[in-house]
Amino acid sequence: IFAGQEDSQFIQIQNLRKDIEDQAGNFLREINELQKDLETKDNLCHQLEDQIIIVGESPEFIQMRAQLLDDLKSQEERHLQQTTEFSKQLEAKDKICLEAAQLRERLNLCESCPICMEAWTTDNHRMAALACGHIFGESCLRQSLQRNPLCPECRANASENDIRRLFPR
To answer: 158 with 131: CB under 8 angstroms?
Structure first.
């Protein structure tokens, strides 16, 4: 039994050794190809460096580079101006959106009486305003003014004679 296991393990070891040698050969071939590719690219780099040195010293190249730098500078200035204009427009739009949101919030608050927080009805609890402009349900407002002759919002002097019914659409 042990001899059969030893033969089997030996074969496995031989197979592993062969796989490792094959992989090592593949790696060596890849390394050789990469070295050749590196040498080719290195030669190209040296050739390009030589050409750049020659072109870099020519007056045409110097003039072209100066023109490109000027163009880039003017383009950068235009972009900065546009960015500033866009920022101002964005700020204006943000301000409008904020005002609209605040107005929407105020309108949502006006859908119900600020005293009892119930919706307006056509009965006793219809919309009514005081001289200061604050809006309440009429029945809530009358009760509040009987207890205290001040606007429940701003505390301005008020009486039941100041109550004006509102007729929204």
So the answer is: yes
* Residue 141 CB coordination number (10 Å): 26
Place of tokens 């190809």: 33
Q: In angstroms, what CA-CA distances link 155 with 125, 128, 130, 147?
A: 21, 16, 11, 13
What's residue 109's pLDDT?
53
Residue 138 contacts residue 128 (beta carbons within 8 Å):
yes
Strands (DSSP E) contained in the chain are 127-129, 135-137, 164-165
Query: 156: helix, coil or strand?
Result: coil
Neighbour order of strands in the sheet with 135-137: 135-137, 127-129, 164-165
The predicted pLDDT at position 53 comes to 66
Gap between the terminal Cα atoms of the chain: 102
Residue 137, strand partner residues: 127
CA–CA separation, 160 and 129 (whole Å): 11
Q: Which two tokens stand for residue 128?
A: 């009514």
Please compute the mean of the pLDDT values over residues 159-166 and round it to a whole number.
Answer: 90
The C-alpha angle 168, 121, 155, rounded to 5 degrees, equals: 75
Cβ atoms of 157 and 150 closer than 8 Å: yes
pLDDT in tens, 92-106: 888 887 777 776 666
